[in-house]
Design a protein that fits this description.
The complex is a heterotrimer of chains A (280), B (304) and C (428). By secondary structure, chain A is α/β, with parallel strands linked by helices. Chain A has helices at residues 46-53, 81-86, 105-112, 114-117, 121-126, 134-151, 167-179, 197-212, 224-230, 248-253, 255-262, 274-278, and strands spanning 6-17, 20-31, 35-39, 61-67, 73-75, 90-92, 185-189, 216-220, 233-238, 241-246. Chain B is mostly helical and 304 residues long. Chain B has helices at residues 2-32, 39-59, 65-92, 101-122, 151-173, 175-185, 187-192, 197-223, 230-245, 250-270, 276-290, and strands at residues 127-128, 136-142, 145-150, 225-226. In chain B, the strands form 2 sheets. A two-stranded antiparallel ribbon of chain B has the order 1-4. Chain C has 428 residues and is mostly helical. Chain C contains 16 helices and 2 strands. The chains are: A alpha/beta (280), B mainly alpha (304), C mainly alpha (428). Chains in contact: A-B, A-C, B-C.
């Protein structure tokens, strides 16, 4: 079985906040067309990794390379924050949902297509006078938004303010909004948090559909049911270091993972030296 | 060299006054996160009340300057404390937890009210007094230029440092100070833990008003002239000082005040007097652009 | 003093306490009056004035408490009024517009003059709404761009003899450039830092205008600024063939110029309104609103936050510049005094009172505040005092402004108003 082409290559990622090392010497690969899950106990540095990938933090050192199918390679650690979504096509959601609460569901999805609708400021200003081909672009954007609303089952609530939606719907909307930038990699920060079992089930389905549509997914999740069911590949972090990496079955069987989750074994703060070598 | 030293002395004196006002801004900002725009005008009201007290005492035949100053200050501080309390109670408390801009507009309204109230009740002219504390010591002489340290400047420095010492003790060593710091960290949590947040906030305004009154008294004595409009410029500069020092940080407010005072006096001494405010504001903009949280402010790491 | 209605005894006690506080507040400043004499300052007592004010506070507080106790329960009157205005917006706006267009027909000189003043503030308010209301950027130095527009027009017109209509866009563009230039370094700052830096810029511009005497005439300002023309026709009584009156064979009247100026500012204000309403429904305007709602999410969606903020800042500045050019040509004279912080505060108050982003609300607020303060022209001394009190009272009663709520910019079905509580006010 030939492994799919690598999409995101994280090498020697190091992130320090003052004296605190949140992530140290992390290496992993997320492959095209796969769902890669990053799991680990609280405070393991998962969200920090996400923030480095999506440009909210600048890593202290290390490289984050994203390869598009056309062979273009983006060095995410050097790209300005918004360009990661715009050029490298990496989208993300947030642990504490960040919707535009005072705007409607539809507006949220339209804002996400900003760069497609408005290639430049000049174009945006020309649109005031009805120039710049805005009308046609908006029609396309509306169709895409409608399509996603249909997918997440919120078509009938398109004109409601996003802040008034129930929690589970907000989670789904945030994912749809991220998908509206046409990402090659979708980073989801605990998408199942706070969902009931049925909603988790729906979420798993939605994510598999997104994968089938050609978008790879990087997932931080605590809900092991979701992780084990849909992930192709799991990376386990503990105290900022990778302790395991493999298929769900491999990871589940890894004694170090069990130790990290159950707090057993030797000192967590001083991981054994072989941890780093296991990463390769 | 001698000239520079003289400007330095003048700058520090001025900076002390700004620092005293800045503490009031930074305290309020730290606790309820609003710019108390009317604070500069409380400073102005404090200066007026001190002046009225001094004239009143002179009328009663109290001629001893230290006694008159002490009595006038106590009376003025007590009365402007009522101003601080009332402003919070009337204009800000009903808006607490409301939208961000409402308290700001309310504060601007309060500032307009105070300015025009004093203008209407006392008049728009400048009020001048004779220097109460004349005399100075010559620190050094160089090339015919004598560096003077006036007793007034000594008084300003001593009073400011003494007040700041008391204030620091209040914030770090008393239950009130602990309550204030708790409210600054997390207002809701503090209230859940049984701290009377309303009372703490009120007292914050009262303390701010007392410090502003001290600054007003020192301003009156130093310049010998006040009018209803002094609060705006001094207030904006003191707020600038608070931001420069890192808003929310008490030592930062004093440091920022000193910085603004020094910039102003050095700029007046070496470049041009009319542009001294431009210099102070430009430094603020530059510092904020390169150190967005001010000199001593907490770095504001964005949580996402 | 709790929110609960108090019994008569408690109300009396409360009112007495308030009176005591008032005594403390006013004993010094009302009870005693500083009077300069030949040998220093003297104090004159004003016990009666003090007594009247303290009594007024007592009675006022008592009445307020009594009213709170007996008033019908349910939504407070102010909210009901605001809701009514919000719902009636669709009908109010055209009526309003019609009244504005027809004003020269029924209003006299004074009405026209007030109308011009009000419309200038409506335009400034609509311009600032782009920055504060849509993009959520707190700008306390908006007057700087008003000043740039006014001085651009005045200087270019007096030195190069260019006409109003040529210079109007130039002034706007210059103001926009200043906006972008000033905005570029400071727009990374958040919230109140941005507020204080914009305030500082406003002051800097004023100080420069006062002190750069060779260019700006310093505090004396610039005089003899050319008046606008209608397709080259002047408004004066010289009887020359290129005057409006002669050309149309009308008897000359000074009102003609006022009517003309009135329609110029009305057109400019409506242009501002049209552009901002249009932008709101376009990607750029939607991005501004998204920025106000959540800057972090915008960045994650690939929106260039800095550029987007700059466009809002520049756009607001441009309309400020237009208004400034109009101000200069209307007055024929400008000086730095017209561009102090109070102007910024006034425009910002109009925007916030109007309801942050509501075009109709801003217009209403400008009419209420500017028109209202005109009503107190005879009490000139007390005008600003009353104005300040009104600001506080209005904010306490309606912290979200007159017309709160937000209309969606796009909808699949019918557009439904979004409750004000959900709409953010921005942090920047």
């Amino acid at each position: 079985m030939a492994a799919p082409a690598p999409l995101l290559e994280v090498t020697h990622l190091l992130m320090r906040f003052g004296g605190l090392t949140a992530v140290s010497d992390l290496d992993f690969v997320a492959r095209t067309g796969e769902i890669t899950a990053v799991i680990g106990p609280n405070g393991a540095g998962k969200t920090t990794v996400f923030n480095c990938i999506t440009g909210f933090y600048r890593p202290t050192s290390g490289a984050l390379a994203l390869m598009h199918a056309d062979g273009h390679r983006y060095a995410l650690e050097r790209l300005p924050g918004h360009q990661i979504a715009r050029r490298a096509k990496v989208a993300r959601t947030f642990q504490n949902i960040r919707l535009f609460a005072g705007m409607t569901v539809l507006e949220n999805l339209m804002v996400a297509q900003h760069n497609a609708l408005m290639p430049s400021v000049v174009n945006g200003l020309l649109a005031v006078f009805g120039l710049g081909g805005h009308r046609a672009a908006e029609r396309v954007a509306l169709d895409k938004a409608r399509g996603w609303l249909d997918t997440i089952g919120l078509l009938d609530r398109a004109d409601d303010p996003a802040g008034a939606l129930p929690y589970g719907a907000q989670r789904r909307l945030e994912i749809a909004r991220a998908m509206c930038i046409d990402p090659v990699l979708l980073c989801l920060d605990e998408p199942a948090a706070g969902l009931n079992p049925r909603e988790s089930e729906e979420l798993s389905e939605l994510l598999t559909r997104i994968r089938a549509g050609g978008c790879s997914i990087l997932l931080i999740e605590h809900d092991m049911g979701v992780v084990m069911r849909i992930s192709d590949h799991i990376v386990v972090l503990d105290h900022g270091k990778k302790i395991s990496d493999g298929t769900p079955a491999e990871v589940r069987a890894d004694p170090r993972v069990i130790a990290a989750y159950l707090g057993e074994g030797d000192e967590d703060e001083e991981p054994a030296p072989h941890d780093a070598s296991a990463a390769a | 060299m001698a000239y520079a030293l003289q400007q330095l002395i003048n700058g520090v004196t001025l900076g002390m006054i700004y620092g005293l006002i800045a503490v009031g801004y930074t305290m309020v900002y730290g606790i309820i996160g609003m710019i108390n725009f009317a604070h500069g005008d409380v400073f102005m009201v404090g200066a007026f009340l001190t002046l009225i007290g001094l004239v009143l005492l002179a009328g009663f035949g109290i001629t001893s300057v230290p006694i008159a100053l002490a009595l006038a200050f106590i009376a003025a501080a007590a009365l402007s404390a009522i101003y601080g309390w009332t402003i919070e109670r009337v204009a800000y408390r009903p808006l607490r937890g409301s939208f961000r801009l409402a308290p700001l507009i309310s504060a601007i309204g309060m500032s307009i009210v105070l300015q025009n109230f004093v203008q209407v009740s006392q008049g728009a002219r400048d009020y001048n007094i004779e220097p109460l504390i004349p005399g100075s010591i010559t620190v050094m002489t160089q090339g015919g230029f004598a560096v003077e340290l006036s007793w007034m400047q000594v008084l300003i420095t001593v009073v400011t440092l003494a007040l700041l010492a008391v204030f620091t003790w209040l914030v770090t060593r008393t239950p009130l100070g602990r309550a204030m710091r708790a409210c600054e960290q997390d207002l809701k949590m503090a209230s859940l833990l049984g701290i009377d947040t309303d009372r703490t906030i009120s007292l914050t305004f009262v303390i701010g008003a007392v410090l502003a009154t001290a600054a007003g008294m020192l301003f009156l004595l130093y310049y010998g002239s006040i009018n209803f409009y002094i609060g705006f410029t001094a207030g904006v500069k003191a707020f600038t000082a608070a931001v420069l020092g890192g808003i929310g940080s008490l030592p930062g407010a004093v440091l920022g005040g000193l910085a603004i005072g020094l910039i102003e006096s050095l700029w007046s001494g070496y470049a041009s007097v009319p542009y001294k405010n431009v210099a102070a504001f430009s430094v603020l903009a530059i510092v904020l652009i390169f150190m967005p949280s001010g000199l001593l402010g907490r770095a504001d790491i964005e949580k996402v | 003093m709790s929110g609960r209605p108090a019994g008569p005894a408690a109300a009396l006690r409360d009112a007495a306490l308030s009176a005591l506080v008032a005594l403390g507040l006013f004993a010094g400043l009302i009870g005693l009056h500083l009077v300069p004499t030949d040998n220093g300052l003297r104090l004159v007592g004003r016990p009666w004035a003090l007594a009247i004010v303290v009594l007024a506070v007592f009675v006022g507080r008592l009445l307020l408490l009594t009213w709170q106790r007996v008033r019908p329960s349910g939504a407070p009157a102010t909210r009901r009024l605001a809701e009514a205005v919000t719902h009636a917006g669709r009908y109010v706006a055209p009526v309003f517009l019609l009244a504005a267009v027809a004003l020269p027909l029924y209003g006299g000189r004074y009405m026209l003059d007030t109308g011009i003043l009000v419309l200038t503030y409506v335009m400034l308010g609509w311009g600032l709404t782009i920055v504060v209301g849509l993009a959520g950027l707190l700008d306390l130095g908006y007057v700087a761009f008003y000043a740039v527009g006014a001085y651009s027009y005045a200087l270019l017109a007096t030195n190069f003899h260019l006409g109003f209509w040529t210079l109007l866009p130039v002034s706007g563009i210059l103001a926009a450039l200043w906006g972008v230039m000033l905005g570029f370094p400071v727009l990374r700052l958040r919230g109140d830092y941005l507020a204080i830096v914009t305030l500082a810029f406003g002051e800097i511009i004023r100080v420069v205008l006062i002190n750069w005497t060779s260019l700006t005439g310093g505090s004396n300002g610039i005089t003899d600024i050319p008046r606008p023309t209608l397709f080259g026709l002047k408004f004066n009584g010289s009887g020359d063939p290129d005057t409006f009156a002669t050309f149309f064979h009308l008897p000359y009247s000074v009102t003609q110029r006022f009517v003309f100026l009135y329609y110029v500012i009305l057109a400019l204000a409506l242009l501002t309104n049209w552009v901002s309403l249009r932008l709101r429904r376009l990607p750029l305007g939607r991005a501004w609103e998204a920025l106000r709602e959540d800057e972090v999410a915008c960045r994650a969606l690939g929106i260039n936050v800095t550029i987007t903020k700059l466009t809002a800042f520049g756009m607001g500045a441009m309309f400020g510049g237009f208004a400034g050019a109009f101000f200069a040509t209307r007055q024929g004279f400008i000086s730095p005094e017209s561009f102090n912080f109070m102007e910024s505060a006034l425009v910002l108050s109009i925007v916030v009172l109007g309801g942050l982003g509501s075009q109709l609300g801003v217009a209403l607020a400008a009419v209420v505040m500017i028109g209202g303060s005109e009503l107190f022209r005879d009490f000139d001394e007390y005008r600003m005092l009353i104005f300040g009190l009104a600001l506080v009272v209005m904010m306490v009663l309606r912290p979200r402004g007159l017309v709160a709520g937000r209309t969606p910019s796009i909808a699949l079905g019918a557009r439904r108003e979004i409750a004000a509580e959900l709409v953010a006010q921005g942090r920047g």
